[in-house]
Specification:
Blueprint (H helix, E strand, L loop, with lengths): L1 H9 L3 E11 L5 E11 L3 E8 L1 E7 L3 E6 L2 E6 L4 H14 L3 H7 L3 E6 L3 E7 L8 E9 L5 E8 L4 E6 L4
Antiparallel strand pairs: 1-2, 1-11, 2-3, 3-4, 4-5, 5-6, 7-8, 8-9, 9-10, 10-11
Helix pairs in contact: 2-3
Length: about 170
């Protein structure tokens, strides 16, 4: 299954689609978000939010930019390991680089077929206090396109992304 996911995504150079995001706070409150995602295999990602309107998340070759509520934060990837980890996780999930993602996160990777999706789960080693404690990725079986990404942080925060690819 890993070979199929990686091979199917090798030739994907770019795509755009609507997405939704649920941010689960440590308090278990949920924040609903949505917008349009644009991906380029050269390492570029743009998520322009329509809810909340005006928010932005962008990955370039050297930076990660977040704009929330009119306030912009810019992180240099080479100098900010936490943001580099986030950028790598998003880009590698979108491009189907499953083995590389597992190696970079020192995580145990499991893959299963649930009938409709290939479900890839990464579990961080026990005692991990920084970064992601668990990553769950769903790829559509028919074409191995990413349809859902769930990032669970050791702190209790989670981000659940769903992509609405055109069929």
């Amino acid at each position: 299954m890993l070979d199929r996911i990686e091979k199917a995504n090798q030739n994907v150079t770019q795509f755009a689609c609507p997405f939704s995001q649920v941010r689960v706070l440590v308090t278990k409150n949920k924040v609903q978000m949505a917008g349009d995602l644009s991906y380029d295999a050269s390492g570029l990602l743009s998520m322009v939010y329509s809810r909340p309107e005006g928010d932005l998340f962008e990955i370039t070759a050297t930076h990660l930019v977040m704009k929330n509520g009119g306030k912009e934060r810019r992180f240099e990837l080479a100098k900010t390991p936490m943001m580099r980890r986030l950028a790598d996780c998003l880009l590698k999930s979108l491009s189907g680089q499953i083995r590389s993602l597992a190696a970079e996160n020192d995580a145990v990777c499991q893959v299963m077929d649930d009938g409709r999706f290939y479900v890839v789960t990464y579990e961080a080693p026990e005692g991990t206090s920084v970064g992601y404690s668990r990553i769950l990725i769903r790829y559509r079986k028919t074409d191995c396109r990413l349809v859902a990404l769930e990032l669970y942080e050791s702190s209790g925060l989670a981000n659940l992304y769903t992509l609405q690819h055109a069929d």
